[in-house]
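Memo to structure team: turn this sequence into structure tokens by end of day. - J.P.
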Amino acid sequence: MSFKLFEVEFDGSKDSFEEGKLKMDLVCQKMGERFIKDWIKYGVDKGKVDIKNINHLYKWIKILEESDLNNLKEEIE
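Reply from structure team:
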């Protein structure tokens, strides 16, 4: 079986366990970068972050770090 995640192609019939692990590490890295970019865009769109203010960015990312994702919506309102 072959599939793609974040433009990384996995092939269960060819990839060794180690290759699969390295590919999954790459997917997690890409997913994390995308998630942070989307998180910042969300803050800008909601008027909570001034993209030119490093303190705003720091505080916004700190909220993400300290958040319980089960209660995320409640924490940012």
